[in-house]
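# step 3/5: fold
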Amino acid sequence: MRSTIILLAVLFSTGLARRADACGSGHEPIIAGVLVVGGAYVGGTAAFAISDIATSDHSVAYGVSETVFNGTAAGIAAYMVASQFEAPYHEDSAVIAGSLIFGVHALLAAHGVYTIIHRPAATEVRRVVVAPAPISNGAILGLSGVF
């Protein structure tokens, strides 16, 4: 399934990025670049959000990558909202969308920081208990315990 999606993405992006003299506009590489960056953004956001919902045992490296990715996206969204207020006529829909995007990425970045700080110790020390145990009606002794 993954290889099919990758193949379709490559075919789609190369189909959009055909030679400029084929259609005369010359904007196809820009469209392909927007698709690649947009796909990476949506894919990264979805991967972190789904992983955070599905599992709770994340590594420190996961927390760092979640913080960097979503912190950057939250910063871009904050800049987008702030630039709307500097414009003489700001769009309310752009402010609302930017605020929602900022909120989602700020929460995911905060979860990344939480994962880094509250990661439990990697190794757990357990007490070893070994006791003789009868095997095969007591004819043979073996070892039993918690390791």
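# step 4/5: annotate
The chain has a mean pLDDT of 75.
# step 5/5: archive (pending)
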